[in-house]
Amino acid sequence: MNGISSVELVRVTKRFGEVVAVDDLSLTIPEGEFFSLLGPSGCGKTTTLRLIGGLEQPDDGDILINGEVVNDQPPYERNSNIVFQNYALFPHLTIEDNIAFGLRLKSRRVAELEVTKLVEEALQLVHLEGLGARRPNQLSGGQQQRVALARALILRPKVLLLDEPLGALDRKLRKAMQIELRRIQHEVNITFIYVTHDQDEAMSMSDRVAVMRNGNFEQIGTPQEIFQTPRTRFVADFMGASNILSGRVASLSADGAQRASPQTIQIETESGLRLISRGGRDMPSGTAVDFSIRPEAVQVFSRGWDWTAENKFDGRIVGKLYLGDVTELEVALGENIFISSRIQSRIDQKFDFKEGDQVSIGWNAEDCNLLSR
Amino acid sequence: MNRNSPRLLSIGCGVVYLFMYAPLLVLIVFSLTPTEYGVAWEGFTLKWYRAVFDNKNIQDALKMSLIIAIPTVLISTAIGTITAFTLYRYKFLGRALYQGALYIPLVMPDLVIGISLLLFYTSIKLDLGILTILLAHISFSIPLTTLVIIARMQRIDRTLEDAAMDLGADEWTTMWKVTLPLLMPGIVAAALLTFPWSFNDFVITFFVSGVGSSTLPLRVYSMIRLGVSPMVNALGTLIVVVPLIIVIIGTYFDRRSVS
Prior knowledge:
The structure holds two protein chains of two kinds. Chain A has helices at about 45-55, 95-105, 110-125, 140-155, 170-190, 200-205, 225-230, 235-240, 345-350, and strands at about 5-15, 20-30, 35-40, 60-65, 70, 80-85, 160-165, 190-195, 210-215, 215-220, 245-250, 265-270, 275-280, 290-295, 300, 310-320, 325-335, 335-345, 360-365, 370. Chain A is of the alpha+beta class. In chain A, the strands form four sheets. A six-stranded mixed β-sheet of chain A has the order 6-7-8-3-9-10, with helices on both faces. A five-stranded antiparallel β-sheet of chain A has the order 13-12-11-14-20. Chain A has a five-stranded antiparallel β-sheet with strand order 15-19-16-17-18. In chain A, a hairpin with a 4-residue loop joins β12 (about 265-270) and β13 (about 275-280). In chain A, α2 (about 95-105) crosses α3 and α2 (about 95-105) packs parallel to α4. The radius of gyration of chain A is 25 Å and the shape is elongated. The two termini of chain A are about 30 Å apart. In chain A, about 40% of the residues are buried. In chain B, α1 (about 5-30) packs across α11 (about 230-255) and α3 (about 55-90) crosses α6. The longest helix of chain B has about 35 residues, at about 55-90. Chain B is mainly α. In chain B, about 75% of the residues lie in helices and about 0% in strands. Chain B starts with a helix and ends with a helix. Chain B has a single domain (about 55-255), classed as MetI-like fold (Orthogonal Bundle), CATH 1.10.3720.10. Chain B has helices at about 5-30, 45-55, 55-90, 95-105, 110-125, 130-155, 160-165, 170-200, 205-210, 215-225, 230-255. The chains are: A alpha+beta, B mainly alpha. The interface between A and B is medium-sized, with 23 and 19 residues.
C-alpha cells in the first residue's frame, strides 16, 4: 500500500449477546478509495460500518482512522460521517439547517455568513439549489438522499460511511445516483465506505469490494477479481456464477498429453465429466476441487455447428428464461449435470432454441475458476 | 346488514350524544336566565356570571386552584419527561416493574388514593394545606404525563439521535437539539392534559386539603350543600368550558405530528 491508510481495522470483533456480528476482521483502506462491503443481510456489514463511525464499540481489536486508534472516541469526535439508510434527516429542521447542523456544532466560531455560503455550495454539489428552505417531508426520496449526503460531506470527513443509501430508491433513480455518487467521490476525494447487498451496485462504483459472510470477509478484491475469479463457493454464488461443480484433479504433468498448457489441469467431475481448467499447478492428482463457471462464459450452439472450445459437450435444453437483452438456457449434460448459459437474445433468436433441443455447449479452460475449499 | 342499519346506527349514536351533552346544555342554558329556583327560561342575563366574578370565596378558591394546578403542570410534566426518557431509553433491572407500577394509580379509585394520602400525610405529621394538595396532584399527574410522553417517544426514530451524534453533537447537545424538539408536541400535550386533570380533581383534593385551602371544586361542593344557586350553573359552565378548550388545544398539538 503506497498511500496513507485512511481506515484500518485490526482484528476487530463485535458480539451482540451470543451472536458474533463481526468476527476478527482486519482491513486496510487507502485514502481516497471507494470501498464496498457487500453481503446478504445479517452478514455484519452494517455493524462494521457503525463500528468505524463509533456508533458501536468493538469488543476486541482496534479501529484506526488516519493512522490514529479511535476506539475510545465517541462518534461526535471521529473524523467520519455516515449517510444512513433511511437518511435520518431531522424532520423539525429545514434542509438548510439539516445541512448546517454539523457545521454549526463543529466550529461555533464560524460566522453564520460562512455557514450560509458552505451550505449553498453543498446544495450545489448535490444539485439541490433553491430547496434549502423546505422541510425534509417536502422532498422526494432521491432528494432526501442527496440532502443526507450533503449534510455529511459538508464536514469534509476523512471517511464517508454510506449504509445502503440507494436502497429505498427505484431502479432508474438508483442508476443515476450511482453515477452521481462516483462523480461526487472524485470531486471531493474522500474515502467512501459503502455498504450494500446489491452486487451490481458494488461492481459499478467500487475500487475494491469486500464480500462478507457471517461477520467474516470471504474475499477482498477489485470488482473484476471478485466477478471473474471468486475464491469461494459463497462468493461465486453471490456474484451469480450459478454453475458450481465438484470434482478431482485427474492427472498432472506426468502425462503431458492430458495437459493443454502448463497453466491448466484436467478435472473429472463427480458425475464423470472430464474437462480442462486453468490454474491448480500445485495440486497433486486426486485432489478434490470445486470450480465455478459464469453462465455468460458458456456458449451454446445447435448440434453439428462447426465451432471449437476447450471444453465441449453434448446436451439437451431443459429450460429457457427470456431476460430481455439476454436469454438463460438450462442445459442437461447427462443425468445429474445441469449447466446454465446466458447468451445474447439475438443469438437465441438466430438458433431458435426450444426446450428439448439437442445442442452442444462449451467453454474455455480460462473460464473455469477453481474455488478454495 | 340491511339498509336500515346506518339509520339505526345514527339514531343510537344520537341518543348516546344526547345523554352525554344534554345535561351540560341544560346547565349552560340555566346559567343564562334570571330564574332563581325554577327551571323555566325567563330571558337572557349574565348576572350569575357577574355574581361569580364578584364572589370573594369563589375568587379565592379559583386562585387556590390555579396555585395548585400551574405548579402541578410544570413539575409533573418535567418529571414525566425525565421518567419517560429513562424508561424508554435505558435498560435497567426492574424496568418493567417500575413502568407497571407507574400506571397503577391511573386505574386506582380516587377514594383509595385520597384516603391513603390522608393517612400518609397524617402519619408523617405533614399539616394539610397547599403543600399536601400540591404533592398529591403532582403524584397523581406523573403517570399521565409519562404515559403521553412515552407514547410520543416511541414515534421518534432512534437513528435521528445516531445521526446527530455522528454529525458532532455530544449526548447533551443531541438531547437539546434533536430529542427534545421532536418530543415537544408530546410534552405540550401532556401539560395541557394535566391542567384540567389537576384543576378538576375533587375526591383526592377533598381528603388532603385542610381548613382554608379549598380549591374550586371543593368550593362548588360546599355551595350546593346550601342549596343550588344558579350561580353554581354559571360557575359550572365556566369550569367545563375553559378546560375543554385547553384539552382541545392539547389534542391539536399532539396530532401535529412531526414523524
